[in-house]
Design a protein that fits this description.
The protein is of the alpha+beta class. The protein has 12 helices and 15 strands. The strands form 4 sheets. It has a 5-stranded antiparallel β-sheet with strand order 7-6-5-8-9. Strands 1, 2, 3 and 4 form a 4-stranded mixed β-sheet that branches.
Length: 397
């Protein structure tokens, strides 16, 4: 066997992330299957020797030496045997070197398909072993290629994964060689070829970044109660301290804003509002509308599926409370779970103020729709899981 085979073997191992020894065993198994098709009566007497170090690749047929006519390929006449081995004797054995070309195209194709199938199984197992425990977690990848349409190829531990444009932070420009953190949303098609789905727009990414950056959160001293996010623009995160001696907000900001700055930089400059959580809805809602000052919060309804409130703010802070295109009000509604109606301090609303209220109203309506959709999705997923459990066979079955 020429050197090209072993070069191809090494390249195949590198390409599939498989060590050469494992690959050699798979090639041996595939070649044995092919050889046994060419020599169906010699199944137990065929051996394959592959040694990448000495670049040896040979196949042998073990034949019994007889002094009369051989009954099949497992036997060889003494005269013929001594051509291969001058010391051969009747009743002994010789190792006849087989010509791989004799197997024919069908046998070679069978061997190739067998190797490809084994490599698929190895690749699937390797990917699952690598990513199974990291599902719903954050990993650091290197950008290796950015396509004209915006989709990017990332590499994590020698495995390529793809970050589609709609899962990238709006306005973010990825560069080749850049290191970025992504959130693994799911692993699809686990039974065949696993597909690692990743994102940089999910709010869970922000949560993981805080857990990785703030030791108090990792240790459970500070707890993240809620997050609302518009990727690329602003995130609101509500935190609570389980230790009265630890300031939850201060822990997240860090000395000289070092912790929060690291997270903001990772999110390409996205603004982050850290909100002190309160078990009192009125207080929590007022804080959630930061940086605006809230004069009064009236809880109108506080049922699980219908939570509404009315907010009064100073006239001059109405725009601040609403935010650009209603963003601040919308994020506050998502963070607290309340439908928020923002009103100015003066009951009589001038026409220009009424125009400013329109985005807040629209934002509240949008937030209401998203909350209802999320509730419906949760209920649907719960029913699907219940149905799946009802139809799933038990271990005894």
């Amino acid at each position: 066997m020429d050197n090209n085979f072993f070069e191809a073997l090494a390249a195949l191992g590198t390409e599939n992330g498989v060590d050469v020894d494992t690959l050699v065993e798979k090639v041996k198994s595939a070649m044995l299957k092919a050889a046994r098709k060419a020599y169906p009566d010699c199944e137990e007497n065929i051996t394959v020797e592959i040694d990448p170090e000495t670049q040896k690749f040979e196949m042998y047929l073990r034949q019994t030496v007889v002094d009369d006519e051989p009954i099949d390929e497992n036997e060889v006449n003494i005269v013929v045997a001594r051509i291969y081995d001058p010391n051969a004797y009747v009743g002994g054995f010789i190792q006849k070197r087989l010509n791989i070309d004799k197997f024919g195209r069908a046998a070679a194709l069978s061997a190739k398909q067998s190797i490809k199938g084994d490599l698929r199984d190895i690749s699937r197992t390797r990917i699952l072993d690598k990513f199974q425990e990291k599902e719903f977690d954050c990993i650091t990848c290197q950008v290796t290629q950015v396509e004209p349409g915006g989709a990017a190829t990332l590499v994590y531990d020698k495995t390529e994964i793809y970050l589609f444009r709609n899962e990238q932070i709006p306005g973010e420009v990825l560069r080749e060689g850049q290191m970025v953190k992504v959130y693994i949303t799911s692993i699809a098609n686990k039974q065949k070829k696993p597909i690692i789905k990743i994102s940089r727009v999910r709010k869970e990414l922000v949560k993981r970044l805080f857990e990785m950056t703030v030791p108090e959160i990792f240790d459970g001293i500070v707890e993240i109660k809620a997050i609302s996010r518009e990727a690329g623009s602003r995130t609101k995160i509500a935190v609570w301290s389980n230790d009265p001696n630890v300031d939850a907000v201060g822990a997240c900001i860090g000395p000289k804003r070092s912790r929060i700055s690291a997270i903001v930089n990772e999110l390409s400059g996205e603004k982050i509002d850290i909100i002190p959580y309160s078990e009192k809805p009125e207080e929590f809602i007022a804080r959630a509308l930061a940086p605006a000052t809230v004069l009064r919060v009236d809880i109108l309804t506080n049922e699980e599926k219908d939570r509404t409130c009315s907010i009064v703010v100073p006239n001059h802070q109405l725009s601040l409370a609403i935010g650009n295109r209603g963003q601040n009000a919308k994020l506050a509604a998502k963070l607290t779970g309340f439908k928020i109606d923002i009103k100015p301090e003066i009951d009589i609303v001038p026409a220009e103020v009424a125009e400013e209220l329109a985005p807040a109203k629209n934002a509240a309506e949008d937030a209401e729709k998203e909350l209802e959709a999320a509730a419906e999705q949760t209920e649907t997923e719960a029913m699907e899981e219940l149905n799946a459990l009802d139809g799933e066979p038990s271990e005894k079955e």
